[in-house]
Structures are given as structure tokens and as C-alpha cells.
């Protein structure tokens, strides 16, 4: 996957994806959201901003899941790990409100899972050589 095209990078979930293209996809998402926010500010879209945001955000979210799945495949993990990394912190933070010190502990657990997900997806090297999801994308 050295010469990957943007369609393959952003809108497929099969195969493996190493760290460099993963961070490229993250940069694309950040730039896209900044452009939407800047346009909304400059054009004074008001409530229409949320419609524009959804039109852009939904495809970016779907693409983010696909990129995350490929990145997990490179780590020889199932794409279902994304449910743990994305949904568990949200659920823990949602139920932690109004629970006092136990709620604080739940929020810390959610934060720990989020940090684990960032490290797993963005910083750890993929499996060296072929794994069950395909050949090593760094192999030449």
C-alpha cells in the first residue's frame, strides 16, 4: 500500500494500513472539519451550519471507521475492537454523571480506554510479515 489512492485509503475496510497513511487520513479529517467550520463562520450559516456539518461529518465518520478497521487489521486485531475504543468511553462517561466519586472513576476508565485506543491505532507498529488480514504494507 505504498502508493495508495485516497478512495482506497478512506473508503475501504479490507486489508492493512500502516501508521503513516493512518495519520494522513486523520489529517484529512481535521482539515475537512476546519474548512467546514471556517466556511460556516465566513458565510454566517447559523443553524444551517448543522446541516452542512452533518453532510460532511457522516461520510467522515464512516471513513474513519473504515480506516480504523484497516489499522486494527495491521495490528492483527478484528475491526470490532473499534467498538471498545469508540463506544465504551462514551458509555462510561454518559453513565458517570451524578455518581460522585464512582462516576469519576468511570470517567477515568473511559479516558484510559481512549488513550489505549490512540496508542493502539496511532503509535504501535503493525504485525511484521503477513497476518490473517493480508501482507505487511511495509514489505517491499
Descriptive overview:
- The protein is mainly alpha-helical.
- It has one domain (10-122).
- Helix content is 69%, strand content 0%.
- The chain is built from five helices and no strands.
- The protein has helices spanning 6-11, 19-43, 48-74, 81-96, 100-122.
- It is flat.
Q: How many H/I helical runs?
A: 5
Radius of gyration: 18 Å
Q: Which series of helices and strands comes N to C?
A: HHHHH
Provide the structure class.
Answer: mainly alpha
Q: Which outline best applies?
A: flat
Concise synopsis of the structure shown:
The chain has one domain. It has five helices and no strands. The protein has helices spanning 6-11, 19-43, 48-74, 81-96, 100-122.
Amino acid at each position: 500500500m505504498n502508493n495508495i489512492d485516497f478512495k482506497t485509503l478512506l473508503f475501504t475496510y479490507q486489508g492493512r494500513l500502516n501508521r503513516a497513511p493512518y495519520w494522513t487520513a486523520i489529517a484529512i479529517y481535521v482539515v475537512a472539519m476546519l474548512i467546514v467550520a471556517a466556511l460556516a463562520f465566513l458565510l454566517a450559516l447559523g443553524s444551517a451550519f448543522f446541516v452542512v456539518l452533518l453532510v460532511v461529518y457522516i461520510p467522515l465518520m464512516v471513513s474513519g471507521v473504515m480506516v480504523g478497521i484497516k489499522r486494527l487489521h495491521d495490528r492483527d486485531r478484528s475491526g470490532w475492537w473499534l467498538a471498545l475504543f469508540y463506544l465504551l468511553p462514551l458509555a462510561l462517561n454518559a453513565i458517570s454523571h451524578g455518581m460522585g466519586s464512582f462516576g469519576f472513576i468511570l470517567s477515568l476508565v473511559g479516558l484510559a480506554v481512549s488513550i489505549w485506543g490512540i496508542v493502539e491505532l496511532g503509535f504501535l507498529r503493525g504485525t511484521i510479515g503477513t497476518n490473517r488480514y493480508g501482507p505487511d504494507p511495509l514489505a517491499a
